[in-house]
Amino acid sequence: MPDSSPLAVCVGEGLVSFVPATAAPLEEARTFHRSLAGAEWNTAIALASAGVRAAVVSRVGDDGFGRFLRAELDRHGVDASAVQVDPEAPTGLYVKELSPRPDGSVDGTMHYYRSGSAAAALSPETLASDAASALLAEAALVHTSGITPALSDTARAAQDSLFDDRRDGRLLSFDVNWRPALWRGREDHGRAVIADYAHRADVLFCTRPDAEAVFGTADPDRLRALFAEPRFVVVTSPRGATAFDGEDRTDSAALDVPVVESIGAGDAFAAGFLAGILTGLSLTGSLARAHRIATRALASTRDHVD
């Protein structure tokens, strides 16, 4: 893609995902497929697929899984120059457990193995590296999520520094991505942290279940009133989405397509919407692009588009 196109930088955790070849309890699963995962990394890949220059700022271990993740970014056309390699901490991973549904799709349950990972050591120093600084200085948009500040104190400090560095003309995108397991025993604190980021973002994404769990309401108009600061507020559900640009509201229905498994579809949806606003599409056009890209994540048990 041309160097003149806008640059989107996604900051957050990359993971290796292991997905069973068949839907069954883990104790019965014998074969697994390896894949890239991580909300911000999924979004970066989908952005690149939409023709937007995309880069990731993160950390991986000096191990085969870390090399696999960096190679996957390269394969999908995502700039991996600011993915640091930790000589000691391992690359995080998760195992997806698939349960069949009567309609032929599957439900996915994630089991994480990320404690002490290289990505958990994300810090302001990571963002201050030469490679990350160069990308962030050029970025038209920086995308983050509510997962990063839950990983560690240093990861939260890194995210704080992104929100404190409000450069003219640069959009800051925030996807709530409420993960109660990461905030276990400090859920109220986590809600307050995420609400603070939501108020300070330019683009706010939230699913209806996450909005209810974190903000106490899933009603789009109430959320728009509650978060008046972001220019764009996007509320999603399996049935469709409601998006606001200031006071302008647009509703759109999800596309009627076969669903294999839904994990990662929200990241692809966010990428499609961001690609739309970065390239000058209307609110309606940005939503349409978001739905189209999300369908590609719904079509497989991978978390990212291919």
Please write out the topology.
Blueprint: E1 7-11, E2 15-20, E3 32-37, H1 39-49, E4 53-61, H2 64-75, E5 79-86, E6 93-100, E7 106-113, H3 124-127, H4 130-138, E8 141-145, H5 148-151, H6 153-164, E9 171-175, H7 187-200, E10 203-207, H8 208-215, H9 220-226, E11 232-237, E12 240-245, E13 248-253, H10 265-278, H11 283-298
Parallel strand pairs: 1-4, 1-8, 2-6, 4-5, 8-9, 9-10, 10-11
Antiparallel strand pairs: 2-3, 6-7, 11-12, 12-13
Helix pairs in contact: 1-10, 10-11
Verbal overview:
The protein has 306 residues and is α/β, with parallel strands linked by helices. The chain has eleven helices and 13 strands. It has helices at residues 39-49, 64-75, 124-127, 130-138, 148-151, 153-164, 187-200, 208-215, 220-226, 265-278, 283-298, and strands at residues 7-11, 15-20, 32-37, 53-61, 79-86, 93-100, 106-113, 141-145, 171-175, 203-207, 232-237, 240-245, 248-253. The chain has a nine-stranded mixed sheet with strand order 5-4-1-8-9-10-11-12-13, with helices on both faces. Strands 3-2-6-7 form a four-stranded mixed sheet. A hairpin with a 2-residue loop joins strand 12 and strand 13 (248-253). It is globular and about 50 Å long. The mean pLDDT is 91.
Describe this protein with a few key phrases:
306 residues; alpha/beta; 4-stranded mixed beta sheet; 11 helices; 13 strands
Summarize the structure.
This protein is of the alpha/beta class and 306 residues long. The chain is built from 11 helices and 13 strands.
Task: Order the strands across the largest sheet as they lie in space.
Answer: 5-4-1-8-9-10-11-12-13
Percent in helix:
25-40%
Shape: globular
Number of beta strands? 13
Any low-confidence stretches, pLDDT <50, length ≥5?
none
Number of helices: 11
Secondary-structure element series: EEEHEHEEEHHEHHEHEHHEEEHH
Q: Strand pairing plus helix content: what structural class?
A: alpha/beta
